[in-house]
Amino acid sequence: MKYINRKIIGGLLLAGVLGASCDTYLEEENNSSLSIETVESDPQIFNQLVASVYERARETSTYYTSDLYYALEDLGTDIVTRATAINGTSDVNDYVNFNSLNWAVGVFWTNQYKVISAANVVADLESGEVAIPDLSAAELAKGVAEAKFFRAWSYFKLVVNYGGVPLVLNQVTTSDTDYSRASEEEVYSQIITDLQTSLAGVDENPADYGRVSKDAVRHLLSKVLLTRGYKSFGSDADFTEAIGLAETVMANHPLEGSFADLVAIGNQRNQEVVFSYLFGGNSVSRGWGNSRHMMYQFRFYDYPGLIRTVQGLRNMPTPFFYGLFSDEDQRAEATFTREIYAHEDYEAEVNGSTVTVAAGELAILLPKETWTQEEIDAVPYAVINPGTYFTNNGTTPVHFPIFTKFEDPGVPFTQPDQSSQGERDMVMMRGGEAYLIAAEAYLQLGNAGQAATLLNSLRSRAGITEEVTAGDVDIDFILDERARELIGEVNRWADLKRTGKLLERVREHNPHVALNNALQEYHLLRPIPQAEIDNTGGSITQNPNYK
């Protein structure tokens, strides 16, 4: 019997297809030993195979372990650092002793190849060697196109982080361990080929919310081309094509009226959203759950009057990030809060007298401007001044304005190594980023005026009345806008690497990196996991300067 899933000895790809029932949610069903004969006898298995690609891609966005959440996406950047005092060292954030044994780089690598493995199962059915009854050619082509979208997305994540990686484009049916690395140029070429196939095959407006649309493909392809445009093997044509794709997405997914409306939990499926991973209230189909509501939270519940409603993921925005917002920028208030209100009554001291603070009244204030000690002593709530976010005040070792952008208030408290149970849609692509992609591409083509026009659209939506001009726009300005608009939504590390600004901005704005002064040019690539090198007998080679 020819089984659809196989294993690569050495663990390069994890075989087995997760069970899936429909286009958006999954049944509690294990399809890890589906056979080709099964597909031939049951056409619904094909739909389950396609759904399994969605499931694996969704789970790699949220399921890690307690110290790996989003570690290779935002930690060690200019706007996010580790939530600890400014002392000691860490590998991912501080780049100290960052090597091939790091757990995060291994998990990230494996997660992406899980998606690729599932996508290859579907893609191989395109050959027609397996006859699937009652499945039209159009349905087959659409399923393959969806699978190739996710395969391209995973390879994009891999090439950005590791450089050239093995291109595995078919089901693995032998125990071969020779998986040498393709060049970066070859990987980008394959990504673009897959996305072109996907663009031709997926629906413009899918009937089922959460399925890949042509605009989702356009959005990803615009970002891939924008990134390739900076490479030695890229060209201005990449920037030009990225603009065209992004502007189509912008036209089809116009900006919501306000940033607060965009991120409101009651307005998750709005016109600006291009693609989201879906979770929902069903504990089986939800999987691990959307964990974004746990991002950028400190232990506020250690203060009087507050209870444990959400646990943080051990990362925090840098003071530089909080300083990026002007007073009129409405994105600040819609993204994080400086005011935390009591969940229950408590007693506090005010100038030597005991007072009762009622539930619903202010419990913690993190003012934008520094308060005097006299002002602090005159109020019953805790006041945490700017400049003291890394100072242990006897209650918490670090503290900072907590994020409300991803709040999911009905979700129970869980520890980071437990199922997060988050039910919100996880927005992965939206029109707002398309504006920023196009603006950056215009800047690279020397058209700062058009870049300014696009940026002004975003800034106007945020309530900013002062317009920027062509002379104001450079790559740092665009990165600042990406920080204000997109923190927690996209890979900040990749943004900094793409634009050639990672070393400069991280050294300047990440306090832990500045302390340890370990960030070097070779850190623009992650180390290849040592297990992959060992298990392939060295056919996968290490990136320079890593051990």
From TrEMBL:
Keywords annotated in UniProt: Cell outer membrane, Membrane, Signal
Location of the SusD-like N-terminal domain: 25-226
RagB/SusD domain span: 321-546
Short name of any one Pfam family annotated for the protein: SusD-like_3
Domain of life: Bacteria
Sequence similarity: Belongs to the SusD family.
Name the UniProt record assigns to this protein: RagB/SusD family nutrient uptake outer membrane protein
Native source species: Euzebyella saccharophila
